Amino acid sequence: MERGLVVERVAQLIRVYLFDKDVYVRGIPRGKVLKKTRIHAGDYVRGKMVDPGTFAIEEVEERKNVLIRPPIANVDRVICVMTIQKPEFDNHLLDNLLVVYDHVGCEPVILFNKVDLLDEEGLKELKKWTGIYAEAGYDVVHVSARTGEGLEKVKDLVKGEICILAGPSGVGKSSILKQLTGEELRVGEVSEKTERGRHTTTGVKLLPFGEGSFIGDTPGFSKVDALQFVRKRDVRNYYREFLRYECRYPDCMHLSEPGCEVREALKRGEISCERYKSYLKTIKEYIPDLKELCDGNET
């Protein structure tokens, strides 16, 4: 059987890219797949050609993950798009995104857009936050969708992968997508009240770019609550810099437990106070000695 990738799912329409033939054809589910499997964009499928433009899908390979909004399977990497100014950077929103995508098995890349528009204060902030997230263990890229600056590095990072763009409204995701692929693909915004997409298309599409890479889009949003996806006590496992330290107790939440090496690292300035504050906010906890812990450790 031939192997392909589902690159589009709109209602009953399925479009498949066939690797060996380097062509796009219509996919038709057959047999058990038709009866039991909901096919998503990003699914790797196997089957055979039944005519020059039609591919019979007889098998869907096991997925490594499935994102819910929009439904895309086998996402290798998430490009988290943020800006320092216009709109102002929200590190807590980014930290929630990083927790959620790490949890579902997608490697995040942090992309700061509109760097060409930053004033002197903005450039200082860019340097500060780049240092914080790079030290925490993330790839950080500076780009300008307007000029194309930095986008070649993005292409290199996601070469041969399925990736998506994620981030709040107004950060320029559509402009980045157009620069990468030459096409526009918007899936709408998310209402704060309903957490559902407004003016959202019913289909999901992956666009090719670079060398064997495919990219999809996600709705814009203004807030994300990691606790809707991750248990409170597990959030600590997705703050990467915390994992470098071994506390006295394996179940340490890094709050006020004795022998907490994360808190000791925070005192020494090895962990960013901004990140630790965001962690406390994410798990909805307060500790009275936070000022003492962070004294002299805010950049």
Task: Explain the overall architecture.
There is one protein chain. The chain folds into three domains: 2-60, Nucleic acid-binding proteins (OB fold (Dihydrolipoamide Acetyltransferase, E2P)); 66-217, P-loop containing nucleotide triphosphate hydrolases (Rossmann fold, 3-Layer(aba) Sandwich), CATH 3.40.50.300; 231-294, Orthogonal Bundle (Ribonucleotide Reductase Protein R1, domain 1), CATH 1.10.40.50. The protein has eight helices and 16 strands. A six-stranded mixed sheet has the order 10-9-8-11-16-15, sandwiched between helices. It has a five-stranded mixed beta barrel with strand order 1-2-3-5-4. A two-stranded antiparallel sheet has the order 6-7. The chain is globular, with a radius of gyration of 21 Å. The chain is an alpha/beta fold and 299 residues long. The chain has helices at 31-36, 91-103, 120-136, 151-157, 173-181, 261-267, 273-282, 290-294; strands spanning 2-10, 13-18, 23-29, 44-51, 54-60, 66-67, 72-73, 77-83, 107-113, 139-142, 162-166, 189-190, 197-198, 204-205, 207-209, 213-217.
